[in-house]
Design brief:
Strand content: 15-25%
Distance between the termini: 54 Å
Radius of gyration: 20 Å
Largest sheet: 7 strands, mixed
Oligomer: single chain
Structural class: alpha/beta
Shape: globular
Strand order of the largest sheet: 6-2-1-7-8-10-9
Number of helices: 10
C-alpha cells in the first residue's frame, strides 16, 4: 500500500467536511479539498484503509474514535509563533494592573483558546509575570486546543532556536533553559513558567464548564475557520465565560462586525464585557 494514490471523490469530501463541521465547527470549503486529500492520505496509508469512503466509515464508528481525534489533529491548522501580533501584548501591559485592581496580591485567570503548540500561552505567561509577578500575583492560564498532537508539544515546552527568535533576549535568558548535548540548538521553557499554564483538550463547539470565569480570553486566528453561525455561538460562550469587565482578544484579521454579540468594542480586535 506504500505507493497507493487515493482518489478523493466529491461525495467522500462532502461526507468528511460535514463530519469535521459537526465535530468541531471547522468549515472545509471546496478550496480545502487538496489539503484534505494530502493530510488524510497519510492517515489512510498508515491505517491501511482501502479508500476515503472506507476511512469515513471507520471514523464514524465507536471503534474509530481515536482515529477521529487523529483526523481532526491532521486537519487543524497550527500556525503560531511567540509574541505573534505583538500589539496585543502591549495592550495587555496596559490593562493588567487595572484588571487585577490595586490589591498587592492580584488574582488573574486567562483562557488561551486554540493554543496550538504553546507559543501563545507561554508568551502570555511571560507578559503576566513581567507585569504582575513582582506583586506576588496569583496567575493561571488555561490553554486549550482540539489537537492532542499540538498539546503534547506544548506541555513539553521545548522549541528550536528558530522558533524562539522573536523572544526578546532578556526574556529568553530569564524564562528558558538552553539545551545541552543532544538538546543543543533547543530551548526549554523553565518549570515555574510551565507550571503557570494548564494544557487540556477542549472542543470550542462544547459549552465550557471551567470552575471560574476568566479575566481575559485570547482566541486569535481561530474563528476564521468557522462560519457565521458557529462564530455567533462561540462569541456568546466567550461572553458568558468572562468576568464583568473582562477582555476578549481576537486575531488582527478578525472582527466581531456582522455578528450578534454583547461585547463593547475597545479597539480593533479587542472587546470588553
Amino acid at each position: 500500500m506504500a505507493n497507493t494514490v487515493y482518489e478523493l471523490r466529491d461525495i467522500d469530501f462532502e461526507k468528511i467536511s460535514q463530519l469535521v463541521y459537526k465535530q468541531c465547527g471547522i468549515n472545509l470549503h471546496e478550496g480545502k479539498k487538496e489539503l484534505v486529500k494530502a493530510r488524510l492520505g497519510k492517515r489512510l496509508k498508515e491505517g491501511n484503509f482501502k479508500s476515503f469512503a472506507d476511512y469515513h466509515r471507520y471514523v464514524t464508528t465507536e471503534e474509530g474514535i481515536n482515529e477521529l481525534v487523529a483526523m481532526i489533529d491532521s486537519l487543524s491548522t497550527n500556525l503560531t509563533s511567540f509574541f505573534r501580533e505583538e500589539r496585543h501584548f502591549y495592550k495587555l501591559h496596559e490593562i493588567l494592573p487595572e484588571i487585577t485592581g490595586s490589591s498587592s496580591r492580584g488574582r488573574l485567570r486567562v483562557w488561551c483558546a486554540g493554543c496550538s503548540t504553546g507559543e501563545e500561552p507561554y508568551s502570555l505567561a511571560m507578559t503576566l509575570k513581567e507585569v504582575l509577578n513582582g506583586r506576588g500575583a496569583d496567575l493561571k492560564i488555561m490553554a486549550t486546543d482540539i489537537s492532542t498532537m499540538v498539546l503534547r508539544t506544548a506541555a513539553v515546552g521545548i522549541y528550536s532556536v528558530d522558533r524562539v527568535k522573536k523572544i526578546p533576549q532578556p526574556l529568553l535568558r530569564k524564562y528558558f533553559q538552553i539545551g545541552q548535548g543532544k538538546w543543543q540548538g533547543n530551548y526549554r521553557v523553565k518549570k515555574d513558567l510551565r507550571n503557570m499554564v494548564e494544557f487540556m483538550r477542549f472542543n470550542l463547539m462544547e459549552k465550557p464548564s471551567f470552575a471560574e470565569p476568566f479575566d481575559v480570553i485570547f482566541c486569535r486566528n481561530v474563528m476564521i475557520y468557522f462560519d457565521k453561525e458557529t462564530q455567533n455561538g462561540l462569541v456568546d460562550r466567550f461572553y458568558n465565560g468572562l468576568k464583568e469587565g473582562g477582555y476578549l482578544f481576537v486575531g488582527h484579521s478578525e472582527s466581531l462586525t456582522g455578528l450578534t454579540h454583547r461585547f463593547k468594542y475597545v479597539e480593533p480586535s479587542v472587546y470588553r464585557k
